[in-house]
Amino acid sequence: MFLLVAAHSPVYHHLYLLPVTGGVVTQVTYSMDWCCSEARFSSDGRVLFCLIMPHSEHVYELTEIGRFDWSGDSVEGAPNIITGSFDRSVKDMDISENGRTVYVTANDAGRVRVYSIPAKGGDARALDKESRGVYAGAVVAGRHVVARWESSAMPAEIVRINPSSGRPTPISEFNAERAAGLDRPEFLEFWFENEQGFNVHSWLALPPGFDEASKYPLVLMIHGGPFSSSTDSDHVRWSPHLLTAPGYVVLLTDYTGSVGYGEAFSQAIEGTPLKAPGDDVIKAADEAIRRYAFIDAERQAAAGASYGGHMVNWLQATTTRFAALIGHAGLVDLEGQYSSSDSVFHRERMIGGPSWGDSPVWKVESPSSYAANFRTPILLTIGEKDYRVPVNQTIAAWTYVQRMQVPGRLLVFHDANHWIMKGEEARYYWEEAHAWLAQYLQ
After folding, report:
1. 208 by DSSP, 3-state: which?
2. Which partner from 144, 189, 332, 367 sits 20 to 30 angstroms from 275, CA to CA?
3. Continuous segment of H or E residues that includes residue 170
4. How far apart are CA 416 and CA 185, in angstroms?
5. Pairing state of beta strands 101-108 and 111-118?
6. Which pTM does this prediction carry?
7. b/e string for 244-269 if b means 16 or more Cβ within 10 A?
8. Is it the case that residue 2 has pLDDT exceeding 60?
9. Residues 162-187 pLDDT 10s
10. How many CB atoms lie under 10 A from the CB of residue 108?
């Protein structure tokens, strides 16, 4: 891998050739305009495919598939991009046995679907364009594609997909018996148009024992990234179903910058790292309340981690509509995050230059600039070994909360990094999160 220092340049990934018997390592791809990874050969060894990530002035670019002619020890010329007409980022690439088709997964409107693409280029075709849930790790197995599949209502299993019909057939039943006893309703979904004219997608997770005639508090669950999305699935790390369990309706919105809605929507966050997404999640809450009579508009809270934690601090700074907030690993000051994180250069590109430049965004969209407005009770959590959002940001947020005499609680997990992954620590986190929400919502 060829690296330039991440503090002043993008990081480049390229391919190298090493004889299996050992010997000289030879660099195969060199471009400063794109990265190349996840290489796959056609069955005859004459064509090399790899995932191409372009480098430009944008923070986010679609990941595409490049096709090279392979001479036996090097590639010939620039890659032929075979996904040029597909406005989605691709991953999980594999090649059919006859070399005519490339199969990939791609995020599309909160789902992750499997697509086929002609190996020489052409339109991407969803094997099942109506599929719910999330496919991952798709690989070719004879005439079929095998992948992991899960949804908001069903835990993960391995399935075999017929490429012609798109119909999945379960192979494993690891979780079927246990899942049968769980009350995990399938997510609802809705769309609205935001101020920039984009259609914004949201999921709504319902609590166990849901009764449409009852009233439920609303809790926003803001995804990280920002170049990610809230998918039709669940995860113990930040589980919508665990959050709904005490009797809440949980709103998951793919705000400006999220992926799965085209490159333009993802890039629209550039220059407005917090305000535009913040406007979207507020409008999503308003829209959910308008649409669903079972939501109690008088009881609202918001939670998020990583970039979602940034957004929680932004909401703390810009609105008093929420009864309580929960933020994990969130920045409170853009410059402080920029100068202490393990990932740097893309942050100044996002804002339009370094913090000593002339971009007003560094101050205008830092939650710390509005600390005098902090009013909402907040639970702040952080892993002490977090290098992506270092502990200094959470300590700074806690200082502002204490200075403004806002009710708060600070939890520092000394052995955790960016995520709270140890079983007992995760259990403790959820106990604390539920207790915090119960104090202010019930």
Report:
1. coil
2. 189
3. strand 168-170
4. 31
5. antiparallel
6. 0.93
7. bbbebbbbbbbbbbbbbbeeebbbbb
8. no
9. 999 999 999 999 888 888 888 999 99
10. 20
Query: Among residues 7, 58, 61, which one has the least CA distance to residue 341?
Result: 7
Residue 311, strand partner residues: none
Each as own residue / partner, the long-range contacts of residues 144-148 (CB below 8 Å, 24 or more positions apart, any chain) are: 145/94, 145/103, 145/114, 146/171, 147/92, 147/105, 147/114
Task: Choose among 386, 338, 426: nearest CA to 395.
Answer: 386
Give 248's DSSP letter: -
Q: Residue 436 has which token pair?
A: 């915090």
Q: pLDDT band at residue 428, thresholds of 50, 70 and 90? A: very high
Can you give the pLDDT at residue 391?
Answer: 93
Give the Å distances, CA to CA, from 160 to 29, 38, 75, 114, 264: 35, 23, 33, 12, 33
Show the tokens assigned to 165: 């019909």
Handedness of CA 13, 4, 265, 393 (dihedral sign): positive
214, amino acid identity = S
Residue 177: its pLDDT value, please?
Answer: 84
Partners of 300 in beta bridges = 218
* Distance, first Cα to last Cα, the chain: 53
- Cα 174 from Cα 183, distance rounded (Å): 18
